[in-house]
User: What shape does this take?
Amino acid sequence: FPQADLWEAEYDATCVELAKKQGKLDGFNVLVGDQGNNKTLDEWIEKSGGEFDVIIDDGGHQNCHIMASFIKLWPTLKPGGLYFIEDLSVGKWMGYRRYSTATCPKTFIFSHKLQEWLDDLIYQGAYGSRKWDVQFMFCQAEACVLGKKPPEVKQ
Assistant: This one.
C-alpha cells in the first residue's frame, strides 16, 4: 500500500525499537502503549488523527482490551470503514480473562458482546435492541469484521 498512511500500535516499546532497527516497520507510524488504558487510546487517536479506513485489532487478546479499544476506536472509523477483530477464540480461555477495569470485569467475554450486537443489527431497535451505525458483521473461526454504515447517499 504505497499510498496508505499506516499506523501500528504495540504494547512493548523494546519490541518496537528492535523492529525499527531491523527495518520491519519501514513505512509505518508506530504508537506504543497499553490498549486497555483509555488515556493511551486517547493519545493514539490524537497523535494519529483518527479518521481510519480500516482498523485491525490483533492486540493483547484480553477481552477487556478488545472492548476498550473498540469503544474508543469505532467512533474514529470512517463511514464505510472496516473494523477487524482477531484471535477471538481465546476469549473463553482463563489465561485471557485476567485483565479487568472498573467498567469491564474479568468475567466479560467479548464474543458474548458480539452476539448482543448481532441482535442489534438484526432487530434494528426493536425488541429491546439498539439501532447504531454497524452495517454488517461477518464472523468466521477466530475473527470478525464489522462494517460501518457508509454515508447516506442523497438522491
